[in-house]
Specification:
The structure is a single chain. The protein is α/β, with parallel strands linked by helices. Among the domains are: 159 residues, Rossmann fold (3-Layer(aba) Sandwich); 85 residues, Immunoglobulin-like (Sandwich); 86 residues, OB fold (Dihydrolipoamide Acetyltransferase, E2P), CATH 2.40.50.200; 103 residues, Beta Barrel (OB fold (Dihydrolipoamide Acetyltransferase, E2P)), CATH 2.40.50. It is built from 13 helices and 38 strands. The strands form eight sheets. Strands 1, 2, 19, 21, 22, 24 and 25 form a seven-stranded mixed beta sheet that branches. The protein has a six-stranded mixed beta sheet with strand order 12-11-13-14-15-17. A hairpin with a 6-residue loop joins strand 24 and strand 25. Helix 1 runs parallel beside helix 5 and helix 10 runs antiparallel to helix 11. The termini are far apart.
């Protein structure tokens, strides 16, 4: 069933536009409640084509920064053992979130179809009882919880996880008995319960993340769900469909739906929303333009699969049911009068949902009254569902874009500039309006936070000398001064035009034509002046790129330097002719040499102003510290040649003042990969730093 055949047209009423002070176009973007694209980490399973496609599609739709993309390698199947979940899902994501570049910025984790849906956290036997299955999303809420297997009989591991018990989620409805507080009704932050603020009653020294999942029967249905979440409509009817049960937890669940004070019905009607409410005498069906939906599904005496599938949902719509296995699979089981799945409603246009991978028990199911109360107050989908989620490390899975928030009221933002060409120190300001007031405005240049202003006029001083010349995106994000803290933002393209380009990476510097002045900071010296003679080599700590520095200044291996100089090409090698070298510190660990085969030395050119070296294919390793292994084919004082069978011609090793090993000797050589002009073609050679770089076997 193709979702596009059943959904209403997208609306773009959430988009606004403004004009810069100097009449440059300034684009504003859809509203986000407690969080924005910079606060979302997207997890992609590299083993799944669906995961890769959906993850990149969502990234583009929401403008998620590249640094927020977490790639993992795990089985492309819906259910795995707890051991697989720990080693191949939780641990890689935990490491990713610990990256200092992301520190404190991620509040939401988005999983994608192709990442396991559930894991057996009872006995680890995937083919066992389905009710042993926990939602992977729920397991990730408290990602720092250590789950191991050390306490089997006699202290011998028995294959069953320790510390995998469910807990009251502190943002949810059942916090008092566990934590001694009622959950705060404020915008979500991963540090909400880990503030380290003295006297903060909510500080329980735990960092949590709200985890959502982009899933449906097909990739195209997920894409449509994303599109409709990005462009929601704050309109439509809410369906609340009770059954006749009145006792115990079942009766309480009906009461939360029902027509009493603090019920979902009560909240929605008082806010002026259209509500269709059933006390258990029918199963509501054939309704168009549905915005919210909650029913007992197959637990209703009047349920049929046809009726369940008969409603049509609007962009921005959310739904849940009290059917215990509504999220047991997102693989299409085919037509028929069968048990319902929440994914069935996605084919009818639904954009966000709560579901369960196995039996949650009714008391742990979504609290409908809290869900619709939060959502219609302007909180985003993730905040709304998790405020209504009683337990973590359990069965709930939340489907959809966490940032979807059709009822939010974002600040209106415009960036004020006299010109979009910036140089030196510039004043950047934003005009912001919101009925609730503005708590703060953050200013970003690309992915770098460059300033925060808390008082009007909202402005900062931007030192453009700290950035590379060329095109950049300037963004202002304003936060509504309310518990919902809705964000509004505006972006404008600017050009930085300074004499010196302060590039972040060596790679960026090498993209320039000869003659461009650049500045490089915090780069590690891999070969010093005493070893090179006319300069030294620097490299990125991640071994992604290196460059030779021509300089009269002395630098030693392990120094961390800042270099200002001119990009040049000499004998086919791109390098930097330094005017200033500043040693920031000494004794840093030099990156481990990159092991390569001889045929892979050199590589494709970096940018349009460099030449290919060697075969000219693959990532360039020119100017990187490399390690090669081969057999000596010729030699003399100061140089020799080696081969490893992968090259047509032996590769030269330059080793000033060092005698060549005997011909036929097998050697491992560490050194700098340099280009050499051989009959008009650039070939790669190795330049060793000293005799210790040559190991004879």
């Amino acid at each position: 069933m193709d979702v596009k055949a059943y959904i209403a047209p997208l609306h773009s009423s959430m988009w606004r536009s403004g004009v810069l002070a100097a009449f440059f176009l300034c684009l504003t973007f859809p509203a986000w409640a407690g969080g924005g694209p910079r606060n979302v980490a997207v997890v992609i399973n590299y083993n799944s084509a669906a995961s890769r496609e959906i993850g990149r599609y969502y990234q583009a739709a929401r403008g998620i920064p590249d640094k927020n993309i977490c790639l993992i390698n795990c089985p492309d199947q819906e259910v795995v053992s707890w051991q697989v979940c720990e080693k191949q899902i939780r641990e890689p994501i935990r490491r990713f979130l610990s990256d200092p570049e992301l520190a404190g910025t991620i509040d939401y984790i988005v999983l994608t179809k192709g990442i396991p849906l559930a894991a057996d956290y009872v006995d680890g036997i995937v083919s066992g009882d389905i009710n042993h299955y926990y939602s992977v999303s729920s397991v990730l809420l408290d990602i720092d919880r250590q789950i191991v297997d050390i306490t089997g009989p006699g202290g011998v591991p028995d294959g069953k996880p320790d510390n995998a018990t469910t807990y009251a989620f502190p943002y949810g409805p059942n916090t008092w008995m566990t934590y001694g507080f009622i959950a705060p009704q404020v915008a979500w932050s991963s540090s909400l319960f880990d503030s380290n603020i003295p006297g903060d009653q909510y500080d329980i020294n735990k960092r949590f993340y709200l985890v959502c999942r982009l899933d449906a029967f097909t990739v195209d249905q997920v894409k449509s769900m994303i599109d409709r979440a990005v462009h929601p409509i704050a309109d439509g009817v809410f369906i609340l469909d009770r059954n006749t049960w009145t006792s115990g937890e079942y009766g309480k669940a009906n009461t939360r739906l029902g027509n009493l004070a603090t019920s979902a019905y009560d909240y929605l009607v008082k806010r002026g929303h259209d509500v269709l409410f059933d006390m258990g005498t029918s199963f509501i069906s054939d309704i168009q333009e549905v915005m919210g939906y909650f029913s007992w599904a197959k637990h209703d005496n009047y349920y049929t699969f046809g009726k369940y599938m008969s409603n049509l949902f609007l962009p921005g719509s959310i739904a849940d049911t009290y059917w215990s296995y509504s999220g047991r699979t997102f693989n299409d089981p085919g037509p028929g009068n069968r048990d319902p799945l929440i994914a069935d409603l996605i084919t009818r246009g639904l954009c966000g949902a709560g579901a369960y991978v196995s039996e949650p028990q009714i008391g742990a199911a979504t609290y409908a009254n809290i869900l619709f109360d939060r959502y219609t107050k302007g909180y985003n989908m993730a905040e709304s569902f998790y405020a209504a989620c009683a337990q973590g490390m359990w069965k709930t899975v939340i489907i959809g874009d966490p940032l979807m928030a059709p009822y939010s009221s974002p600040p209106i933002v415009n960036i004020n500039l006299n010109d979009t060409v910036l140089e030196g120190i510039e004043t950047v300001s934003a005009s912001v309006y919101d009925e609730s007031g503005v708590k703060k405005v953050e200013f970003y240049l690309d992915d770098t936070l460059v300033g925060v202003s808390t008082q009007p006029p909202f402005s900062i001083q931007l030192d453009t000398n700290e950035f590379s010349i060329g095109s950049h995106t300037l963004e202002a994000i304003a936060y509504e001064n309310s518990p919902v803290a809705t964000q509004g933002s505006a972006k404008v393209q600017v050009t930085i035009d300074n004499a010196i380009s302060a590039v972040a990476s060596i790679y960026e510097a090498l993209l320039y034509a000869d003659g461009q002045l650049v500045r490089l900071k915090d780069k590690i010296v891999t070969a010093g002046t005493i070893e090179i003679g006319d300069g030294f080599y620097i490299e990125e700590a991640d071994r992604s790129c290196g460059v030779k520095i021509i300089s009269n200044s002395n630098a030693n291996r392990g120094d961390v330097v800042t270099v200002i100089g001119t990009v040049r090409a000499i004998n086919g090698q791109k390098l930097i002719d330094a005017t200033t070298v500043t040693i920031q510190r000494t004794g840093a660990e030099v990156p481990k040499p990159l092991y390569v085969r001889l045929k892979d030395l050199g590589g494709a050119p970096i940018g349009t102003y460099a030449q290919p070296v060697g075969l000219g294919i693959g990532a360039s390793n020119v100017s990187l510290l490399v390690k090669v292994v081969g057999q000596v084919t010729s030699g003399s004082i100061g140089e020799f040649t080696i081969t490893d069978g992968s090259v047509a011609e032996p590769v030269k090793v330059v080793c000033p003042g060092v005698s060549a090993p005997p011909i036929g000797t097998k050697v491992a050589v560490t050194g700098l990969c340099e280009p050499e002009d051989r009959e008009g073609k650039l070939v790669a050679r190795i330049r060793s730093r000293d005799s210790s770089d040559i190991q004879v076997f």
